[in-house]
Write a structure and sequence with these properties.
Radius of gyration: 19 Å
Low-confidence stretches: 19-24
Structural class: alpha+beta
Helix content: 25-40%
CATH architecture: 2-Layer Sandwich
Largest sheet: 7 strands, antiparallel
CATH class: Alpha Beta
Shape: globular
Number of strands: 7
Order of helices and strands: HEEEHEEEEH
Strand content: 35-45%
Strand order of the largest sheet: 1-2-3-7-6-5-4
Length: 139
């Protein structure tokens, strides 16, 4: 009887912690401009935003941004309408960027740093990618 009570208690604690994680670690927005007109989403450690450029341009801009921010690129997989890039920071943190072309002028970008994410570094990387795309004319 005592063993059953302990198991029930453990299950309810685990369920409570899982619910708390979902509520606290859920979705938030990241304001990208002073007016608050542009926002990215930050969901469970993943930074998501659209960029002006097709998948190939976004992948090239991301690879350049890795170098500009001192990251060591490990992987560059590119297909016609999508790309996946992986790099390591000087602190040996894994950075993964997935790109999916939405239309001929825009691509969806998702950035994850390690398992739990790093909002400020993801934002820095996004800003650098966007700057690189802007300097090329985007598409």
């Amino acid at each position: 009887m005592k063993d059953v009570t302990i198991r029930k208690c453990s299950v309810s604690i685990a369920a409570s912690l899982a619910a708390l994680f979902v509520l606290v670690g859920g979705c938030s927005t990241v304001v990208l401009d002073k007016q608050g007109d542009m926002e990215a989403t930050y969901v469970a450690g993943e930074f998501r935003m659209l960029v002006n450029g097709n998948a190939a341009a976004a992948a090239s801009a991301t690879s350049t941004a890795f170098k500009q921010l001192g990251l060591y690129q490990l992987k560059f997989d590119q297909e016609t309408y999508k790309a996946s890039l992986t790099a390591r920071t000087p602190k040996d943190e894994k950075v993964t960027v997935n790109i999916a072309e939405v239309n001929s002028r825009q691509s969806s970008l998702s950035i994850r740093v390690n398992v739990l994410g790093d909002r400020s570094f993801s934002r820095r990387l996004y800003d650098q990618i966007d700057k690189n795309l802007s300097s090329r004319g985007g598409w």
